[in-house]
Amino acid sequence: METVNAIGRRKAAVARVFVTEGTGKIIINKRELENYFPSSILQFIVKQPLNTLDVAEKYDIRVNLDGGGYKGQSEAVRLGIARALVKINAEDKSALRAAGFITRDPRVVERKKPGQPGARRKFQFSKR
Predict the structure, then answer these.
(1) How far apart are CA 113 and CA 39, in angstroms?
(2) Would residue 63 count as lying in a domain?
(3) Is 119 helix (H, G, I), strand (E, B) or coil?
(4) How far apart are CA 44 and CA 74, in angstroms?
(5) Average pLDDT over residues 116-127
């Protein structure tokens, strides 16, 4: 099997994921998963699609991550891995969709409007 690549996005984070057959190593920006995401919760989020299909020890994964915060980055990697697994085996799509890993979360930060301090916040009103 040659390398399969996919892109995952979440908020401002973009993850380019490259999946090859291997022993279950996950490398993010040339660092081990445990070093890049010290939090066990974020590690769990990244591994969710692999654990759903029970293929955690079957593939080596290399990721280029850019932008966003650590939560958005972990969810971008999750989407990228899920998309790559579907490219490898199309029958896995229904299981991943049922778990909610195929759908791209469209929620992003609302833009700041002119004449006010934030997206919705208005300057304090002063009667006098």
Answers:
(1) 35
(2) yes
(3) coil
(4) 9
(5) 94
